[in-house]
């Protein structure tokens, strides 16, 4: 069930949301931003879902391998 919420933002913020997110997408955008801060999440399930995403895991491995090679050139 959805609930209607009235919030007040500056005109600049509203214009930015309208321009970058779109008129009929602002509510969903704000919900997606707020959701992780106000709802408890099942971290185990979230980690399992991330681990099952092979494209994400490949990208993470490539990033971490590239980062490790940067350490070889570091000066202390």
Give a brief rundown of this model.
This protein is mainly α and 76 residues long. Helix content is 67%, strand content 0%.
List the helices and strands and how they pair.
Layout: H1 11-20, H2 26-38, H3 43-52, H4 54-71
Task: Report how far the terminal alpha carbons are from each other.
Answer: 56 Å
- What is the percent of helical residues? 55-70%
Helix run count: 4
H/E series: HHHH
Biggest beta sheet summary: none
Overall residue-averaged pLDDT value: 87
Descriptive overview:
The protein has 76 residues and is mostly helical. The chain contains four helices and no strands. The protein is extended.
Jot down its keywords.
76 residues, mainly alpha
